[in-house]
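Shape matters. Shown next:

___
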Amino acid sequence: MFQLQTPSGTVTVQPTEPDTTGAVVYRLTGAVSGSVHVTISHHPHQWDQFTTVRVSLGSVHDLCTKPAEPLPRIRGRAYTGHVTNFPAEDYQPAEWREQWLYGPTGAPAPRQAAQTLTVVMRACGDHYRSRSDLSKLREQARRQQTPKLVEWLRDMISGRDREEAASIAGAARDRAQGRAYTAAWWTVARWWLSTQDPMLLLLLADGHGTFAHQARVRPQMAALMEDSAREVRRRGDHYRGELEGLTRPRAGAAAGK
């Protein structure tokens, strides 16, 4: 148990024992009543890395299935929201991000309430992160959240594969059309050389939609489609790496059970 001094007054915080998902509920009394739910979550850009601490007001993590805990209340008003703490990376220190705090009507929480809740949420998150059994809680969270993450990743990989195939097919179609327009332009050019028909000059001009224009633009469009296919492939490979990381047997994971 510990106490916090907040803009709304003193708040007493009582952590519960961790549940089987690796989460801890912090019971609040005093200036704030209700609960805060804290657990480990996947990194938003690397789903096989469980390095993010997520703090929710009352409600649990999106990937948890247990009933929501009572929402925190300040002077009788309930509030919802969450904050996440990402690990230090790219020369940036660990910091709290993604703060969303809303009142009972869905409007942003008033300034004092938001400041109070921020103090409470960050304190609970820091307390959780300093636990000696954090590595065990991380493995519990990984086991609980992995099935849904694997399902989502497989869907995203399938979508990227379809998108890549469509881009490759589109690039091939544009290149084929570019060659066809080029061949047509040269055919008209040979006709003009043999007939000197001024009407053929209209077909040889470089205006929008003409043979010359299409012969030049279609390969450019194909190159853009190929760039798109490579980017989609890069994202798909990233998802495949995350999926492999989630499904690969983990050394020492059994010891954390």
